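Hi F.,

I've been meaning to write this up properly since the lab meeting, where we talked about keeping a consistent format for the predictions we share between groups. The idea is simple: the sequence comes first, exactly as it goes in, then the structure tokens exactly as they come out, then a line or two of notes. No screenshots and no reformatting. I'm using this chain as the first example so we have something concrete to point to.
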Amino acid sequence: MPNKIHLPVDERFFEPILNGLDGVAITDAQGRYIYVSESWSRLMGGLTIEQVKGKYVKDCIPDTLLHKALDERKAIVGHPVKILQQDSGQAFSSYYPLFDNGELIGAFVHVIFIGIKHAMAFSYQVNELATQLEFYKDELRKIQGSKYTIDNIIGNSPPIARLKESIERAAMTNSTVMIEGETGTGKELVAHSIHSLSTRKHAPMIKVNCAAIPSELLESEFFGYEEGSFTGAKKGGKKGKFEMAQGGTLFLDEINHLPSQLQPKLLRVLQEWEVEPIGSKVPVPINLRLIVAINTNMEKLVKEKKFRSDLYYRLNVVRIILPPLRERMEDIPLISYDILEKLNHQLGMLVEDIRPEVFDLFRAYAWPGNVRELQNVIERGMNMSRSRSLEAAHVEEYFKQRQGFSTNLNRSKRHM
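Output, unedited:
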């Protein structure tokens, strides 16, 4: 083992440079000290090279990552370490393996010590940057359209466990997904969850509600148009939703409302994976993942000739069926408290608790509007409340004379 560093020129030339750094140490290939600078000795409370030579770095600095840098033969930069002799600041170590003709011969360790004031300022800056990063990540998600993740699906019931498993499987492929569920069950939430788990998560997610756009405008919304292609066309033309979703996901909600004249055009898109803007003769290749949602029995529409069977089979590749709320009543407390927290933030209110008898009322109702209806009832009750608890009196008026509500309610049965 060498006892000194062999440099190509006079070592005294490097001493001022090494001592000008906060702390410098050099080790052998096994991670034992063979050199430390004077500044390192001062930083370590007066430890000299005679005291540490031949000792393992981890014996002096337990949380060192030198061994990792040596094992992986790669540099590690800016690792925070606790120096026992220093309790008024923060130290950061960088480890650089040294090689001679490809053979590992040791490591160069550079320690930077930041006093408590600088450390606090640095910590504040890091926290501020982290906050800004989260803000911009959130803004990016909004721009791209992926507003929700699988974590936003609330519940521990077996139907929800199966649903999440289906979402995770669907996210692993690029196949078209058909989401089936009643109104208010969270079809859009599932679509966003699939997108956010997929390899396309950093690309746009574009949504089109087929029931909300007049049928005569759907074609231009889907495929776009060239300038001058029809009266009122924008100068420069317009990209359609398919082009806007390039590389990402296109979510067609309520696909069962797609007009019959547009169904063969959508079928051609799925066959050729290209679109032709209105007024253009040049097809545009597309690369996207298609997710559609329905809230009705599609087989019935196909039998009634209201929806093309060949298009239906193209869309119905991966099918995910959402459980209605009445089939997972055990999730209602979790969902309710999640809704309560969000509404408190949105409405500037402070309703912290939900009384057990409220859940008795909830359990006695069939919830045809599912989670969306549950949110409506909780928001109504919060506006009736003058305390920090949601009570039966605040919501029971809603259920009176309402179809699907059990009049033989036994409030002593609280199985939620």
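Notes:
Residues 1-11, 407-416 have pLDDT under 50 and may be disordered.
Residues 92 and 112 are 5 Å apart (CA to CA).

If this format works for you, I'll send the rest the same way.

G.
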